């Protein structure tokens, strides 16, 4: 049996889950402690403020992005197809921290805005390097973003319709790469 996550990780994941579900204003230290099943003092031991929680989430986001960019650059199928194929995946560490950064950016936290701009630009550059055309690269990114958006929506329509069409969308990616 695996060991339960350490208190720091539990608090950080609880923070991200609360950001996703309730937004930045409702994500208080007390709420994080309750969600993580820790005492408030236990959370404050690792994160003396909400800002410290946000900074830790930002660091984890950057690490997850660097791993994703490396995987994307090394993917045998190429960065464009890899981007679209993995856009459908939710529940990963990258997804957890990406949503946290989106919610923090929506509340005007500038480091989150800058981190999101950085990773979107890095994804675009990898795809553009492969396909050779900025507009084709942007279209490929929009395909991936649409898949990501729909994968997070409730209901069968999103999962069923797009799950069946990912391979067709990858054929469209191949077409855009040749254009």
Query: Number of DSSP strands?
Result: 0
Main sheet specs:
none
The proportion of residues in beta strands is under 5%
SSE-based structural type: mainly alpha
Percentage of residues assigned to helices: over 70%
- Summed up, the helix count is 9
Please tell me the total number of domains.
Answer: 2
Q: If you compute it from the alpha carbons, what radius of gyration comes out, rounded to the nearest whole angstrom?
A: 18 Å
Mean of pLDDT: 90
* End-to-end Cα distance: 52 Å
The H/E string reads: HHHHHHHHH
Low-confidence stretches: none
Global shape: elongated
What does this structure look like?
The protein is mainly alpha-helical and 179 residues long. It contains nine helices and no strands. It has helices spanning 7-22, 29-36, 40-46, 50-74, 79-87, 93-106, 110-131, 134-151, 156-178. The model has no long low-confidence stretch (mean pLDDT 90).
Summarize the structure.
By secondary structure, this protein is an all-alpha fold. The chain has nine helices and no strands. Residues 5-65 form the HTH tetR-type domain.
Features:
179 residues, Arc Repressor Mutant, subunit A, mainly alpha, elongated, 0% strand, single chain
Which SSEs are present, and which pair or pack?
Elements: H1 7-22, H2 29-36, H3 40-46, H4 50-74, H5 79-87, H6 93-106, H7 110-131, H8 134-151, H9 156-178
Helix pairs in contact: 1-2, 1-4, 1-6, 2-3, 4-5, 4-6, 4-7, 5-8, 5-9, 6-7, 7-8, 8-9
């Amino acid at each position: 049996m695996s060991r339960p996550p350490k208190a720091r990780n539990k608090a950080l994941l609880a923070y991200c889950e609360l950001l996703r579900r309730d937004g930045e204003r409702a994500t208080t230290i007390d709420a994080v402690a309750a969600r993580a099943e820790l005492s408030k003092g236990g959370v404050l031991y690792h994160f003396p403020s909400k800002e410290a929680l946000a900074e830790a989430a930002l660091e984890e986001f950057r690490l997850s992005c660097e791993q994703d960019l490396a995987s994307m650059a090394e993917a045998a199928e190429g960065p464009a197809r890899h981007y679209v194929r993995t856009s459908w995946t939710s529940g990963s560490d990258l997804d957890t921290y990406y949503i946290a950064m989106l919610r923090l950016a929506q509340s005007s936290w500038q480091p989150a805005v800058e981190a999101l701009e950085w990773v979107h630009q890095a994804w675009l550059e990898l795809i553009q390097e492969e396909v050779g055309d900025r507009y084709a690269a942007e279209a490929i990114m929009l395909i991936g973003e649409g898949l990501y958006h729909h994968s997070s929506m409730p209901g069968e329509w999103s999962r069923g319709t797009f799950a069946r069409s990912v391979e067709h969308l990858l054929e469209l990616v191949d077409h855009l790469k040749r254009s």
